[in-house]
């Protein structure tokens, strides 16, 4: 079937990326809020933002919005600026699931060597990709003033169509993926370009995402009422990997601490560094990896430090026991780690020291303990990760839950709270939910 390219739609798509809306409209644009849900089977997070359609999987390293499409849909011409932008976002390596079906029966545009603009949707779980038309998707989200919901607004984003087979290993309810990277065709970048309300977004997994420069008030036991956590979070610069659009932390040292002095991981100098030439190394955040994954040399050093702290600082007979797949580090004894009244298990903390940051990131009990006995941090297998290069550490979804994360795409900074449970609150305590 001919693709029926629409130059009118192309102009709309280009305006998403280029044209600045009128001053009055930009001044009145309010931040947006969307609910996030965690899938119980895959542990992946989906966002309900595609208007009247199934949700999309949240991928912090994703460069595109992509979804399955009806057989007839509008498309973007390959000679447009938008198409030129999407061609710079093709995955460097992936396994194609379609065998080149896209080009079958296509009619070329007059004076062009190609048919409609093609994008390359990528499944971050399987490492597979496809080719598909670049089109526009109808979206909707609630506006917010940071304390409450206001009203629903509709808008459009540019995205790629993808075949059903690319949905493999995603939640059964999902229709595609929403990329959240700093690339121009990611969901946050497109929304910020349209609404001119600040190139920021926040995540508080597994509950919600906000778009725009907005406060986030959480209910706490404070007698003064809800607290704006965007005012009290720490900040760290983010590193850029030219071969991976993910968000990298400038981790210079890792240590394990509990009731005594901290025990640093015994690693060579630079073992955690990101090599910007090859794209290897570094510590990257991921919403599509359920648990943290460490390169073998880093994992061995971590396991040794963790065992040392447990043996030295334990207050009961807790000790290493046989692992429970896929977890290698499991601990037992008289009930394993003791349960505290309000903040979870009494267990070591894992401190990430960040270069140039206003504070360090400490991974606490609820962000790594599985069933109170196993450490939800895995050793990277021989196949590595389905991304270019091989990171030293992937910080997974479990490590990000119930932490407020504020991404400033313009300044390349990340704001992060501590584990909210320790303040006797959580992401579901936001006043606008």
Automatic annotation (TrEMBL):
InterPro entries associated with the record: Aspartic_peptidase_A1, TAXi_C, TAXi_N, Xylanase_inhibitor_I-like
Entry's Gene Ontology BP terms: proteolysis
GO molecular function: aspartic-type endopeptidase activity
Extent of the signal sequence: 1-26
Domain of life (superkingdom): Eukaryota
Xylanase inhibitor C-terminal domain span: 247-417
Residues annotated as domain Xylanase inhibitor N-terminal: 45-206
Family under the similarity heading: Belongs to the peptidase A1 family.
Name of the protein this chain belongs to: Peptidase A1 domain-containing protein
Species per Swiss-Prot/TrEMBL record: Zizania palustris
């Amino acid at each position: 079937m001919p693709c029926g390219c629409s130059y009118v739609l192309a102009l709309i798509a280009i305006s998403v990326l280029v044209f600045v809306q009128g001053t009055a409209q930009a001044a009145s644009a309010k931040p947006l809020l969307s609910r996030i849900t965690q899938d119980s089977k895959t542990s992946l997070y989906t966002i309900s933002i595609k208007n009247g359609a199934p949700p999309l999987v949240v991928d912090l390293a994703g460069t595109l919005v992509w979804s399955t499409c009806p057989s007839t849909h509008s498309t973007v011409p390959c000679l447009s600026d938008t198409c030129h932008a999407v061609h710079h976002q093709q995955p460097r390596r992936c396994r194609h699931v379609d065998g080149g079906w896209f080009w079958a029966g296509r009619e070329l545009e007059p004076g062009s060597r190609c048919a409609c603009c093609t994008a390359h949707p990528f499944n971050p779980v399987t490492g597979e990709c496809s080719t598909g038309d670049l089109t526009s998707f109808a979206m909707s989200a609630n506006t917010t003033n940071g304390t409450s919901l206001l009203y629903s607004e509709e808008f459009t984003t540019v995205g790629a169509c993808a075949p059903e087979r690319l949905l493999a290993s995603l939640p059964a309810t999902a229709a595609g993926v929403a990329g959240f990277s700093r690339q121009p065709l990611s969901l946050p970048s497109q929304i910020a370009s349209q609404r001119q309300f600040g190139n920021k977004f926040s995540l508080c997994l597994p509950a919600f995402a906000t778009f725009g420069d907005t406060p986030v008030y959480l209910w706490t036991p404070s007698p003064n009422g809800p607290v704006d956590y965007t005012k009290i979070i720490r900040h760290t610069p983010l590193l850029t990997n030219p071969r991976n659009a993910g968000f990298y932390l400038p981790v210079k040292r890792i240590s394990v601490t509990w009731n005594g002095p901290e025990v640093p991981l015994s690693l060579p100098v630079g073992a955690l560094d990101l090599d910007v030439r090859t794209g290897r190394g570094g510590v990257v955040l991921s919403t599509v990896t359920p648990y943290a994954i460490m390169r073998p040399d880093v994992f061995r050093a971590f396991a040794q430090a963790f065992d040392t702290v447990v043996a030295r600082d334990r207050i009961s007979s807790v000790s290493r026991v046989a692992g429970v797949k896929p977890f290698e580090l499991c601990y037992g004894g008289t009930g394993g780690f003791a349960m505290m009244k309000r903040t979870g298990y009494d267990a070591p903390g894992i401190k990430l020291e960040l270069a140039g940051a206003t504070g360090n990131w400490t991974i606490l009990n609820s962000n790594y303990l599985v069933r109170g006995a196993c450490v939800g941090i895995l050793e990277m297998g021989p196949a590595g990760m389905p991304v270019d290069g091989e990171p030293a550490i992937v910080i997974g979804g479990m490590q990000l839950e119930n932490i407020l994360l504020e991404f400033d795409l313009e300044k390349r900074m990340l704001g992060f709270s501590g584990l909210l449970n320790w303040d006797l609150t959580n992401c579901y305590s936001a006043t606008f939910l």
